[in-house]
Specification:
This protein is α+β, with helices and mostly antiparallel strands. The protein is built from seven helices and nine strands, in the order αββαββββαβαααββα. The chain has a five-stranded antiparallel beta sheet, with helices on both faces. A two-stranded parallel ribbon has the order 5-7. Helix 4 crosses helix 6 and helix 4 crosses helix 7.
Length: 248
């Protein structure tokens, strides 16, 4: 069967002259690129993306009306071109400021850190937009696991960076909303993550965040294993005001 698959691949490469997704390449660092695709301008490609996601996501229902959505396709580069490893979609106009509508890492590229990169990239876009982002709820079981892992690392990293800054007051003070602004995360996601990590406690009539050396050491070990991160310096993107663009 591997010979048949290789034959299909060779025939496809002979007929298909596309070496990358349509749309604009808005991010490239080393062998990782991200393309922004308008669901109205590239309707056929966007619908096919949704149909691929439908194969692997039980709750995926929308695949024909792609006009209100933008698609962000992450690719990996090799000698044959750029190959999709996953994507996420988001609404052009979201009243709830959702930064992800649907997210998928192809099964053959799972366990390589691409899911985290896609989530990290969605929050980078929220940062450029000046918004607090959050994925559409409810999340699938696998989606919740992925986001819980990202949120936990992001919250701990944000707290450690704050503690490393020179503080005018002792002890240093940081509110939940200030932490949200630092991470571009919604308040409910930050609070649920602090509770999940057992970092928030009631002390002398107020809630306080408590970090211990064990949690910090676990975080440092976890981050040392993550070799690839999204680097905002390599983003070439400006947010659009879709409310002023009529019917997209």
């Amino acid at each position: 069967s591997s010979g048949i698959n290789a034959e299909y691949g060779a025939r496809h490469r002979m007929k298909c002259k596309l070496f990358h997704p349509p749309g604009n390449e808005i991010y490239r660092k080393q062998n990782i690129s991200v393309f922004e695709i308008d669901g109205r301008k590239n309707k056929s490609y966007a619908q096919n993306l949704c149909l691929i996601a439908k194969l692997f996501l039980d709750h995926k229902t929308l695949y024909y009306d792609t006009d209100p959505f933008l698609f962000y396709v992450m690719t990996e580069f090799d000698q044959h071109g750029l190959h999709m490893v996953g994507y996420f979609s988001k609404e052009k106009e979201s009243s709830e400021d959702y930064n992800v509508a649907c997210i998928l890492t192809l099964p053959c590229h799972q366990k390589k850190g691409y899911g985290r990169l896609l989530i990290e990239f969605s929050y980078l876009l929220s940062q450029v937009e000046g918004k607090l982002g959050s994925p559409e709820k409810p999340l699938s079981d696998l989606g919740l696991l992925s986001y819980r892992s990202y949120w936990s690392n992001a919250v701990l990293e944000g707290l450690i960076q704050f503690m490393d800054e020179p503080a005018p007051e002792k002890p240093p003070s940081l509110t939940i909303m200030e932490l949200c602004d630092r991470l571009c995360m919604k308040k409910e996601d930050v609070i649920s993550t602090l509770q999940h990590l057992s970092l928030i406690h009631y002390y002398k009539g107020q809630y306080v965040i408590c970090l211990n050396n064990e949690i910090l050491e676990q975080h440092r070990k976890s981050m040392s294993r993550k070799k690839v991160r999204i680097d905002g310096k390599f983003l070439r993107w400006q947010p659009k005001d879709w409310s002023k663009r009529g019917k997209w």
